[in-house]
Write a structure and sequence with these properties.
single chain, mainly alpha, 78% helix, disordered C terminus
């Protein structure tokens, strides 16, 4: 997450979030359609990298968009939303039992596509630190 956050600060948080979501979508499709273990595990590794990229940029975008007085309200919505009511292991168990293990990746792919469309449509601004754009390394 740390390198992804730094790269997002240099090249743009919106851009990094959209690239990460697109990479997640591709990894979900690849994992769902994987013909063997090697391709499946490669897709899961890529998914982990993409998730770290998006998790490094989402809070930064939230901080950039909302003033300090409103951040807590939106952060609590994100952390206390529907996923706390519907336990992922319960839903994953139902999907696996009735539709097979690949259905989990298909469902995640659908959510990822929705997030990708919403992010490209709704997030208009690009945030980066102009002073630090020239170099990834800190000044001596």
């Amino acid at each position: 997450m740390v390198p992804a956050g730094r790269i997002a600060d240099i090249y743009g948080r919106r851009k990094m979030f959209i690239y990460a979501t697109a990479l997640q979508t591709v990894s979900f499709i690849t994992a769902a359609l994987a013909p063997n273990y090697t391709i499946f595990m490669t897709a899961r590794i890529i998914q982990g990298i993409a998730t770290a990229m998006s998790m490094a940029t989402y809070p930064a975008i939230l901080v950039s968009v909302y003033p300090p007085s409103e951040r807590e309200k939106y952060w609590n919505k994100r952390c206390g939303g529907l996923y706390r009511i519907i336990d992922g292991s319960f839903v994953g168990g139902l999907l696996t039992q009735y539709f097979g293990w690949r259905s989990i990746f298909y469902l995640c792919m659908i959510f990822s596509i929705i997030i990708l469309i919403a992010a490209t449509w709704k997030i208009k601004d690009e945030w980066l630190r102009q002073k630090e754009k020239a170099s990834i390394l800190p000044a001596p």
